[in-house]
Amino acid sequence: MTLLQFVQGPLWYFASAVFVLGVLWRLIAMVMIGKPRDLSAARTSSFGGGIKAILLHSVPHGGNLARTIYHFLVGYAFHIGLFVLVLFAAPHVRFIEERLLGWAWTPVPGWGFALAAQFAFAGLILLYIRRLTDPVMRKLSDWDDHIGTWLVFLVMLTGCLALQESHDGLRLIHLLSVEALMIYFPFSRLMHAFTFAFSRYNTGATYGRRGVTP
Amino acid sequence: MTDSASAKTSDGPNVQAAIDKFIAVTGSQVAAYLDACIHCGQCAQACHFHEVTHDPKYVPANKLVPITKVYKRHKAPFAALKRAIGLAPAELTADDLTEWQELLYDSCTMCGRCTVVCPMGIDIASIVGLSRQAMVAAGLGPADLMEAAENARTKGSPLGMTAQVLSDRIEWLADDFEVEIPLDKKKADVLVTLSSIEMMKYPDSVVAMARLMNASGVDWTFSSHGYEATNFGILSGKSDVAKIMIERLTGAAEELGAKTVIIPECGHAYGAMRWSAAGILGRPLPFEVLHITEFVAQQIKAGKLKLKKMGDAITYHDPCQVSRRGGAAEDARTILNAFASDFREMEPTGNNNWCCGGGGGVQAMASASDLRHKVFRIKTEQVDKTGAQSLVSACANCRLTMDESKVALDWHTDIKSLVELVADQLEDA
Amino acid sequence: MVDVRRSVSGLARGLAPIALFLMLALQILAPSLAEAQSSVRAPGNAVVNAVPPPMGSAPDTATQGTPPGDALGNSSDSESWRKIRQGVPGHVNNTDAYGSRGALIESSGENWRLWRNDYVVRYGGMVLLGVLTILAVFFAIRGRMRISGGRTGKVIPRFSLVERITHWFVAILFVFLGTSGLIILFGKLLLLPLIGPKAFGLFASASLEGHNLFGPIFAVAILALFFVFVRGNGYKFIDLVWAIKGGGFFGGHPSSGRYNFGEKSWFWWATICGIALTLTGFAMLLPEIAASVSTALVGPEMTGRLFLQFAHLVHAVAAIAFIAFGIGHIYLGTVGMEGALEGMTRGYVDENWAKEHHDLWYEEHKAHAVTDTVKAETEAAAGHV
Predict the structure, then answer these.
(1) Rounded to the nearest 10 degrees, what angle do helices B369-386 and B396-409 cross at?
(2) Is B55 on the interface with C (CB under 8 A)?
(3) Are strands B414-417 and B390-393 parallel, antiparallel or unpaired?
(4) What is the model's pLDDT at position A106?
(5) What would you report as the CA-atom Rg of chain A, rounded to the nearest whole angstrom?
(6) Which residues of chain C have a pLDDT value below 70?
């Protein structure tokens, strides 16, 4: 078995399994801890509040836009760029069609990919520079923040370098880094991609009961 | 583990007790919060302590560090695996706890402003409240708060207002102000409570409340079996005292057969009784809990209270626990619009207001006073921008904080109580 | 300097795994790349060339067309080849939209190739090597320029957060685009003999894709750099004095404001090179648009292909000029001079460093000198510089 075959075969299945099972277990185990029931008399629906909070916290509110404009713009540039790259890059769509689902959607054209990549890279780099320079973010950051950022950067970089799809070597490096990311993901803060909804919902539900969505 | 076992050991803080408490208070809700924080630091933008000092240690997310450490080492999914391969965070130390004492007490008013700005919507204020329980378990509760909580346990009130003092004072106020103030009626529909700050420092407030109750014509009373609305058990992290205070009020209300319990002008007291009490007690409350502003707003809407207009330019400071964390921001507006013809909002206001700097027990801690005076500068600038002649609030704790900071900052705008203002505008007064 | 160490260690913590990972990947990759013939494919958009029949084989008159150049015995072979090389149009089924119709050899293309290889690669390489040599010699003789009088412990805010973010954004892109660009330009000469055709193909393909992807962000970055740093970068008379005195590199300390002559020159150099790189870069990225614009502006004689050849040469020359100056800048910002780097990492500089290198700026800002570095950093971040 060549390295490429190994990376495309057993290692891919292993990484996928760690990713899917790891994420599921982490979420299930988190919910299974349980919490005390809120017995106070509700003013309004907590479910409605939860849903509202999930939406509301997607954008700066409460007069805080100007104060958090950097994170807002740069964060969205990165995340939107990343989603387009992950879900709509032509090689990914083909991969999804051929190896995952059997069907897929229309990929973005070349210029769309390039544009998304610009946003994703600019966003990630600017967020990371802020992490290294802003006293507050420096105070909060730990090794998990650094590794997570670098892994995502590595995946994006190797992916873009392999764009010509003419060298198996480049694809191999990209796949290897993707697999490293997938294995790291469930154990790290990258989990915020899923936990964000739980966190927002909890606050929305707690305060929605009180008739307010902070 | 009970709080009596929480005494400081001779070697310093009881770290193991703190760890146990941190583990115990971390439910799935807190777990989701701790797992979701991405260290973006935007909460710094919302925190008045960071805003006035620009010291990164005050960033709200930093206040989650001790509980996060314990959660990720002992309770989080994969914690055992991470411990086995050395990737779990290090064990919590006595130094950690000592370092975080100031951050969890002196520099957090649990105002919840950080939650608004958090992209993950993390309720940091509640987690600080839970973390305080662990600090108390370690023996690191600040002396001032511990004393206030003990006073509440033994004397019935954090300021030492016993049932005897209560009845003496009520008698004196009723005589002096010629107002009927019922105490210990056998049966009543409404139990009115008070905060000892009002009784000891702003007795006019108690009189005003009595006049509003009388004017609205409800069957009400104070009770010497349960009168103190503030809950220093919750503020300090002493959960046994928290429960005792709630049991006293609940017992008094049940004894009277009251359908409604009214919380006076005190934000944290409202949060404690309205939202936390049933959970701490373990059963739903058999009566309705209303903040005094909610009650007055209801009476105004029902046409029971007739008010004269007032032309002074005033602005309103939302107590965080009543508005942002209590959901009753609109009631104060209903009242204000009913009598004030020149009411001006601050920017930001309502659910997004800036805290006075003294909530969460910070007001009662001598060690925190310099910092909170600095914080109050934000409020004075807000008020000055509106050009209002007086600053009105509906929380005696906010009012005391602001009165003290006002002197410290040499600021001259009047600070008033909403209840007192409304009572003065009563048509038959 | 605990905090500088923290930021460096933060970077190192991130960089170490990436470097390790890349080295490991290459190590594992090398043999499989060498053996896997099938692993190299033509790019999806490549034109597939048919292999011409071997020379001297009997022409199959039934299937082949007229021989080129009307070579029916009236002209010698060398004359025919000369015409072909010079791009004289003949009867050829060549429908190239960008070049001259009917030419067998795109003569200007051959000229471009010779220009690139004989001049740009040769002299550009010399310039870069020269700069490195000069700096190495300078460092050997002069050593690290220390802060005279040592650190005072008091620091002055110098660069705001916005300035620092912009700087590092440009810097990261500069390193990435510089590296990939140098591989594209010099790779065939230096890398190919070293690592062999398979691995070189991989590097070249990756460099090209990366270069094309990151190029447009660089255009935005260089624009931001200009607007953020233009304040204080206009030349003044004292800059002439500074330049005449040799900037104090050989002793003495000429006067300077917020930026000295060298820094101002670097700013304008970066701006001009940046504009040149941006314009020519976009031309190569969008050849169809570039072709129609160039033909419309200059006339039909400026074909798209010719324009792209110019654009490429300008791009390469501007890049070498940019990188050459950039090497000097990086040298002075890191190993060459004590106390310079922290201005761009933490946002503040030591009082004595400011006094020595930017005395006029120091006079204006000495009131802001503090011992509390956290305070200085916060002040700098807030833009009080």
Answers:
(1) 90
(2) yes
(3) parallel
(4) 94
(5) 20
(6) 1-75, 91-103, 251
| Contact status, residue B101 vs residue B135, Cβ threshold 8 Å | yes
Structural contact between residues C261 and C243, judged by C-beta atoms closer than 8 angstroms: yes
Q: Does C44 touch chain A (CB under 8 A)?
A: yes
Q: How far apart are CA C247 and CA C239, in angstroms?
A: 9
B145-298 and B306-424 have identical folds: yes
To the nearest whole Å, the CA of A45 is away from the closest chain B CA by: 13
Name the 3-class secondary structure at B72. Answer: helix
Surface of B (71-90) touching A: CB under 8 A? 75-78, 81-82, 87
Residue A65 lies in a domain: yes
Of A130, A160, A172, the CB nearest to C209: A160
Q: Is residue A18 part of a domain?
A: no
Cis peptide before A109 (omega within 30 of 0): no
Residue B24 or residue C246, greater confidence: B24
CA distance linking residue C278 with residue C268, whole number of Å: 15
Query: What is the least distance, in Å, from the CA of A137 to any CA of chain B?
Result: 5
A165-176, pLDDT tens digit by residue? Answer: 888 889 999 999
CATH 3.40.50 fits B145-298, yes or no: yes
- Name the residue of chain A whose CA is nearest to B277's CA: A40
Amino acid identity at C95: T
Domain CATH code at residue A167: 1.20.950
Flag if B55 and C374 touch (Cβ within 8 Å): yes
Distance (Å, whole) CA A173 – CA C39: 14
- The residue behind tokens 């936990």 is A195
Q: How many domains does chain A have?
A: 1
Partners of B35 on chain A (C-beta within 8 Å) are 26, 30, 189, 191-192, 195, 198-199
User: Which tokens sit at C333?
Assistant: 């910002």
Residue among B25, B30, B33, B40 with most chain A CBs within 10 A, to mutate: B40
Residue bearing tokens 């995502």: A152
**pLDDT (0 to 100) of residue C35:** 46
Domain that holds residue A203: 45-207
Fold assignment, B306-424? Rossmann fold (3.40.50)
Q: Quick check: is A26 in a domain?
A: no
CA distances from C336 to B118, C249, C357 (A): 43, 11, 14
Domain boundaries, chain B: 3-141, 145-298, 306-424
Residues of A with CB under 8 A from a CB of C: 2-4, 114, 117-118, 121-122, 125-126, 129-130, 132-135, 138, 141, 143, 146-147, 149-150, 153-154, 157, 160-170, 172-173, 176-177, 180
Rounded Cα distance, A27 and A30, in Å: 5
Is A87 a member of any domain? Answer: yes
